[in-house]
Amino acid sequence: MNPKPPAPRQNAGSPPRWADRLLAWFCAPHLLEEVQGDLYERFTRRVALVGERSARRQYIWEVLGFIRPFALKRQRTVHQSDEYTSPISLHPAMIRNYLKIAWRNIAHNKTFSAINILGLALGMVCSLLIFLWIQDEFSVDAYHANGTRLYNVMERQLYDGKVVAAPSTPGLLSDELKKKFPEIEYAAGFSWEDQRTFTVGEKFNREKGRFAGADWFSMFTVPLLEGRPETALNAPANLAISRKLAENYFGSPQAAIGKSIRLDNQTDYQVTAVFENLPDNSSEKYDYLLSWQDFIRRNEWLKDWGSNAPRTFIQLHQARNGDLPDADRLEAKLKHFLKEVNPRMKESPFKIELFLQPFPEGYLYSNFKDGYQDGGRIEYVRLFGIVAVFILLIACINFMNLATARSVRRAREVGVRKVIGAVRSLLIGQFVGEALLLTFLALVLALGIVWLLLPVFNTLTEKHITFRYASPSFWATLLGMALLTGLIAGSYPALFLSSLNPIRVLKGSLRFGSGARLFRQGLVVFQFVLSMLLIIGTIVVYRQINFIQTKNLGYDRENLIYLSAEGNLVDKYSTFKQELLKSPGIQSMTYMDGTPTNTFGSTGNVQWPGKGPDVSIEFQFSTVDYDFTKTLKLNLKGRDFSKAYGLDSVSYLINETAARRIGYVDPIGKPLTLWGKQGTIIGLIEDYHMTSLHIPIEPLIIKLSPDPERKNIIIRTQPGQSREALASVETLWRQLNPKFPFSYKFADQEFQKLYRSEIVVGTLANYFAFLAIFISCLGLFGLAAFTAEQRTKEIGVRKVLGASVPSIVTLLSADFLKLVLIAILIASPLAWYAMNRWLADFAYKIDIEWWIFAGAGMLATVIALLTISFQSIKAALMDPVRSLRTE
Amino acid sequence: MKRTYLGEFEEIVLLLVAGMDGEAYGVGITHKLNEETDRSVRLNQVHAALHRLQEKGMVASRLGDPTPERGGRRKLLFTVTAYGYRTLHDIKEMRAQLWDNVPAAPKLAFNL
């Protein structure tokens, strides 16, 4: 050992201590004294020459100079050692020994190993599934080669003093933008989803597709199997179909090109391109595309700059230096474009602006608040990401807890190893290594479970996730996850065990301080806080979904069927209606553009006497047939449209919200002007929910339409007779409309689709909460077993002295229950805050009541109690003679 | 025959150690080097060279006494080993031999 250095002279000043420590840390020990001495000598000399400050600076500089291979910690190569070197190194024999000990530990304590591996594996299953889901969410729309240059043109409007953003734009916008702005390379409109009946020879079927601009295939990466991107959609009779349709109707893509297809049994179109089926991870799905020219021709009203319906996408030119295009500058120029092309807009109270949203963001960030992007699906991605981390953390905590609890058993091994000369870093390595071994066993198990669960998970989430065996990133993530889990799980036990004092351990006087116990208890509390959060979250989500599904919407969605009016049903609608009403099982019938859950459109062009110039209210509107209120079972004051009155083409029905917004106390008989047509309000509909409960009820105007074309026929069947009703509808359809496939939808199923993501989230949350509490209880089970074992002798003595079994069970359980109760107290306010934020998304929602917390707390307590009592009762029933005999 | 490789800097350090007759240590050599060769070297370079030389067996080291200006730490004093001396002589001889081949008055070429 080196002699202790005499204290340095006080007046000389001293070099920075941190630099010295740094040097001591990185410098090889056998060089340290020499190097330090030399540095110090120079320092002393420099203080005299250039002053202390400068000397200190140079000292630091010189210390840093020693960070180089020869001085860095390394084994002494010269054989002149005067110290005894540690015999334990990373020798193969030693590694074999570590593995052997690790394996014996796993094999010897089957319960603990099983709890550990199972807990870790379940945690990993959860995080793996979530990871796959998140990966899939991020891959949506990410495959377009020009993705960074694609933008969605959106509109911001001022309605009712609120800024609202929407993707609907005027139909002529895409072409005009491309003409006016040289920055734009391509622009394409994109219509709403349509269903059309395709007829080729004797084959006919209904297909889903859209209209799209001529640039579509130049912008988006949708590979063409046949045809060229420039000509695919450049004429009104052009039709691009997917590989699936080409194979269905013609046998192959090659055979399909140039052939003609009759649409809706009216018009013939030429197949000008066949595109590859769209991948699962595209947000927009379509099996055919028709040209934009055709779209405008079919819908004259699209030429009006005041009407918004389709979407507009643009692709910007690459900047000259290869940078991304400057979308902000273009956005600034675009902003008031609509006012330039449409002078009428200048005085409009709606204050319309255009803005750009990067196309790849559209899927995950689809919500807008006050006209600006505000979350969307990304919130669920984040939420589940957090849940994944939480659950993995719970599993890691189990591991840490059990390992530290069991450390008494390993303490002797640590003592012996230390006495033979193991240094601390090697012991840490050994225990972390053991944790990693367990983690990898768990990972293998987890992979197996995930592989089995994946089909179920896909059904649940409506995705097509597969293992990407070939992708290195998949394996890298797996490996990373396992390493991280192993390191976190193994860190505390390793640090704790390696710090034990060998002398005390081997003398048998080892007492664990209260620090270790407190830490363990803290971990249990933390685990249960996380579990409680998940349980409360699940209850709230479940209740909200239940609320949505049972809430009285103002109309009766049971026993409603939708058909679409097409082909002969348009001309022979009145015959159809007459015949159908005579058929069994049918109560009433109407048609409507849109559906009860989705009104067709909205308009601000509504006037009434006394309307102020600045008032801008957006009214939802729908056009309907007679018997509308009767079929939907709406509550109505006044009267419905009726053939008994000749003037119903200028009569309107409005809902209560509309009456309130207009300011009519008794609206029936009052005047109303819609799109310049003055008419009268003949009926007041009690408010009903026109869309999902995310949105408050909006003002609504309903107008009679004489023409059923492309509208939804809504049929109310007799309760309990839907089969008969459907049979009569189908028979009649086949008679009147043989060239079109018969298909229908149930209103309540359509309604469920509005809450698809909530329902998925609810179900997933259910499973995750269950898993979390299960994993937590696994840990608790292990800890309880450990405590019971530790206190075997104490229990024996108590029993001998006359303690009853219940009193012992209480004694053992109370400690743990205290922790669970603390966890409940901590978790409740956190959960309350989180769930309030989630519910804020709904315009109509449940209240978070106190009993939810009480119930979740009770549940957690009962589960924990059951877990612990198993061990406690086992311990309490033990024969004291046996446990005390050895003493 | 196994050849000894000695870098130019190592050679100078070894020469200095030889010249300082048992009193050579890190700082001392650094100062001497700075004075005599007029090139500025840093302490860690000298240390690195010394330890390389020791690994090659050309110098031996022993610990000196602690001194107050070193904060009580001991010096590591270096001496040249017999093998070190021989290497230095070999180098000198080889250089001399090579010099013998150089003509007395070198022809200077001017290509203007």
Molecular structure report:
Chain B: This is PadR family transcriptional regulator. Chain B: Residues 17-89 form the Transcription regulator PadR N-terminal domain. Chain B: InterPro entries: Tscrpt_reg_PadR_N, WH-like_DNA-bd_sf, WH_DNA-bd_sf. Chain B: It holds the Pfam family PadR. The complex is a heterodimer of chains A (887) and B (112). By secondary structure, chain A is α+β, with helices and mostly antiparallel strands. In chain A, 51% of the residues lie in helices and 16% in strands. Chain A contains 30 helices and 28 strands. In chain A, the strands form six sheets. In chain A, strands 19, 20, 21, 22, 23, 24, 25 and 26 form an eight-stranded mixed beta sheet that branches. A six-stranded mixed beta barrel of chain A has the order 4-5-10-7-9-8. In chain A, helix 5 (110-139) runs antiparallel to helix 14, helix 5 packs antiparallel against helix 26 (756-790) and helix 19 runs antiparallel to helix 26 (756-790). The longest helix of chain A is centred in the middle third of the chain and has 38 residues, at 424-461. The model of chain A is unreliable at 1-11 and 77-83 (pLDDT under 50). Chain B is α+β, with helices and mostly antiparallel strands and 112 residues long. Chain B has a single domain, classed as Arc Repressor Mutant, subunit A (Orthogonal Bundle), CATH 1.10.10.10. Chain B is built from four helices and two strands, in the order αααββα. In chain B, a hairpin with a 7-residue loop joins strand 1 and strand 2 (74-80). The longest helix of chain B is centred in the C-terminal third of the chain and has 19 residues, at 82-100. Chain B is elongated. Classes of the chains: A alpha+beta (887), B alpha+beta (112). Chains A and B meet through helix 2 of A and helix 3 and strand 2 of B.
